[in-house]
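User: structure tokens for this one?
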Amino acid sequence: MRVAILSSGGKDSAAAWWWAMCKGWSIEALVTVIITDDDSPMFQIPSTHLVERQAESAGIPWVEVRTIGQTPDDIAALEEALSHLQLDGFVSGALRSDYQKSRLERMAERLGIHSWTPLWHQSGYNHLKGMIDHGFEIMMTGVSAEGLTQKWLGHVLTPDSFNELASLAKTHRFHVEGEGGEYETLVVGGPHLNDRLMIEGTAHWDGVRGHYEIH
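Assistant:
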């Protein structure tokens, strides 16, 4: 199978990428939607430009798709980019968003290719724990949930800090895998990369939420 990986650079994209690798499929490109506005109901915004570095590490072409975050311009721009690639389909890290999954599937139908969502409805706890156990280095680049403080910004999850995160999620009733937008991530190392991304940045915190600005 010749596939593209729809990648934001975060943990779910990385897990989908690794799944395709384990299948032995030919990964033709990493495709990243770069949102030029301040918000998007469909795509991640923080740190997405760093997918280019992940692609370089893995020796895979990177396709950048710049668009505003509004419907239907966002999916139209992605569809246009994918139409120029020789693909059997694409793989995404959709976990629980029916909105995201259905829009991608309709796009695939229009293009005459397949849409694979290997993480769909997995347990968020098992999904994240399994990634950490398999050596994925998941950095927190944004937090916006009660219980998540400045100390998490720029932090790379470990087995111990994952247990703390799971405890906070239970106490404050947020999704441990961040599916509700409670936090954003960047994967800086893992079995899908040939080397580790060396990241430096500055934490910005307003007392309620914050983001990690990568230099």
